[in-house]
């Protein structure tokens, strides 16, 4: 689990990022979770946007993505979710 200080640090790192995944009408599926897992391994930190037409609410989407990809939800702002997972091969972010 991340501490408050680590979450603050990650929020500041994620601030300038643009969402690279979108969750729409189909909601979260296995394929999306696999892609997000791979992207987390490569990048460690990124944003996912939840589209207006998504049938599931954003908190549930965040929970499903985090559980499926074994990641941490750093923050949910509006319809944007920030996810973090420490990379095994490609570590770039040093947590405080």
* Helix-strand pattern: HEHEHEE
User: Over all CA atoms, what is the radius of gyration?
Assistant: 13 Å
How many helices? The count is 3
* Count of discrete domains: 1
Low-confidence stretches: none
What overall form do the CA principal axes indicate?
globular
Q: How helical, in percent, are the residues?
A: 25-40%
Content-based structural category: alpha+beta
User: What percent strand?
Assistant: 15-25%
- How is the CATH topology named? Translation Initiation Factor IF3
User: How many strands in all?
Assistant: 4
The second-level CATH architecture is 2-Layer Sandwich
Strand order of the largest sheet: 1-2-4-3
Q: Main β-sheet, in a few words?
A: 4 strands, mixed
Domain CRM: 1-96
InterPro entries: RNA-binding_CRM (IPR001890), RNA-binding_domain (IPR051925), RNA-binding_YhbY (IPR017924), YhbY-like_sf (IPR035920)
Pfam family, one: CRS1_YhbY
Protein name: RNA-binding protein
